């Protein structure tokens, strides 16, 4: 019986400003705040490319994308 070898994912280029590269697992990407650059349980889309947690949205006066579209 031949055992399959695990495939190693290719390296991901990360900006030099990060102390550690962000986790790209499905758990973290769904709850990642692009403003404080950390995990969050309250992250919501605020534009086409970024998520913000509740404290960051409040601090910056942002609205979740689905609420902003509902107002229009």
Structure description:
This protein is of the alpha+beta class and 72 residues long. It has a domain at 44-72. The chain is built from 3 helices and 4 strands. The chain has helices at residues 26-30, 54-60, 65-71, and strands at 32-33, 38-39, 44-45, 51-52. The strands form 2 sheets. A two-stranded antiparallel sheet has the order 1-2. A hairpin with a 4-residue loop joins strand 1 (32-33) and strand 2 (38-39). The longest helix has 7 residues, at 54-60. It is elongated. The model has no long low-confidence stretch (mean pLDDT 78).
- Helix and strand content put the structural class at alpha+beta
- Which oligomeric state applies? single chain
* Sheet with most strands: strand arrangement: 1-2
* Percent in helix: 25-40%
Shape: elongated
Number of strands: 4
| Order of helical and strand elements | HEEEEHH
Query: Can you summarize the main beta sheet?
Result: 2 strands, antiparallel
Cα separation of the termini: 61 Å
* Low-confidence residue ranges: none
Instruction: Name the beta content range.
Output: 5-15%
Mean pLDDT: 78
> Compute the gyration radius: what is it?
17 Å
Number of helices in the DSSP assignment: 3
């Amino acid at each position: 019986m031949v055992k399959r070898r695990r495939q190693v994912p290719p390296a991901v280029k990360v900006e030099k400003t990060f102390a550690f590269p962000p986790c790209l697992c499905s758990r973290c990407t769904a709850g990642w705040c692009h403003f404080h650059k950390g995990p969050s349980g309250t992250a919501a889309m605020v534009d086409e490319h970024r998520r913000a947690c509740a404290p960051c949205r409040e601090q910056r006066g942002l609205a979740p994308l689905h609420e902003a579209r509902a107002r229009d």
